């Protein structure tokens, strides 16, 4: 088939159009949900300030990905319905920008688990003084996420072309590797993400176990230490689903993505690109996770208010006894 005939197959593919339409609709829905989640996390005090910084960086990453995805899908659909054949070939530099936003947001979102594990580990180790820890440490961890994301992208784009390649036709906006690249240019970073997510999940579980153990066994705890450990336990409970979802999503699409890349030669171009967009369900993940975290925090906040109300209704002498137990 000629380039024009292959591009006609792309523009008229039912599955590719359906994939772009569905993902575009989900992406549009994700914007108000993520912005609401960003405002909610910023206004709540249930997490330590440094924990909130890591979550806000994660939401920012999802917004960047959604922005790139909105531009990618909307411009492609307009192009497919208004042009055909070689007239529908995408502009190289437009693809470079929108796919760059797409990939950057996805890479940055995948690094949140690492920074949260480090933040919670430091909070556990320095439990007696961590409550007084300033935002500088949280900002530093935010930059760590950026560094890891750029390291991922460096490998991903190491063999990529930043100018149109002679005798190479770009049928769809993708990370275009040069002739000396290999399938491992894409798959190696994805395998690294898979391993990192598994390590982070195990580390977060261990931190949770150690936080509970220290809370139950440490003697002569100051009020600051007890508060930090209690807050750590609450944070781990609230973030447990966050870490699980982050681990599952990025492990899943890394595993499926590598399998898809290895078998790309066995399927048509439209089918391959339609599946690529389906497995990268980051906006869907952002919507579902935001809703779950919101209701989890509301439930946790309700429990705290109920506990506080019961404490206020306690007999004063009994309250004094409990207070002495806490500080002793």
UniProtKB/TrEMBL annotation:
Cellular compartments annotated: Membrane
Top-rank taxon, per record: Eukaryota
UniProt topology in membrane: Multi-pass membrane protein
GO CC aspect terms: membrane
Location, primary (coarse class): membrane
InterPro entries named in the record: 7TM_GPCR_serpentine_rcpt_Srab (IPR019408), Nematode_rcpt-like_srab (IPR053286)
Secretion signal, residue range per the UniProt entry: none
Transmembrane residue ranges: 20-41, 100-118, 139-158, 188-209, 241-260, 272-295
Keywords per UniProt: Membrane, Receptor, Transmembrane, Transmembrane helix
Keyword Membrane: yes
Protein name in the entry: Serpentine Receptor, class AB (Class A-like)
Organism of derivation: Caenorhabditis elegans
Lineage: Eukaryota, Metazoa, Ecdysozoa, Nematoda, Chromadorea
Gene transcribed to yield this protein: srab-4
